[in-house]
Amino acid sequence: VRAQGDTYQIVADVSQFEPPDIVVTTSNHHVTIRAEKVAEDGTVCDTFAHQCQLPEDMDPLSVRCTLTEAGTLLITAHRR
């Protein structure tokens, strides 16, 4: 987590996954990123998981996710 002005940012490279494969959840000042690539035969061939804690002064209603065309997931949250 890095701070820029009044915004916290989390950046993750998920370029090996398609957008439907990526799930981002928040709970109790924690952000969890999970991604799973499933092969045509139903087996899981690649996974990604990352969890981080956001600072206490973060506004939980301000969390936003953006996935760039290059496959970079950008999660932002504003300070209260």
TrEMBL record:
Residues 1-80 form the SHSP domain. InterPro entries: A-crystallin/Hsp20_dom (IPR002068), HSP20-like_chaperone (IPR008978). It comes from the Eukaryota. It holds the Pfam family HSP20. Belongs to the small heat shock protein (HSP20) family. This is HSPB7 protein.
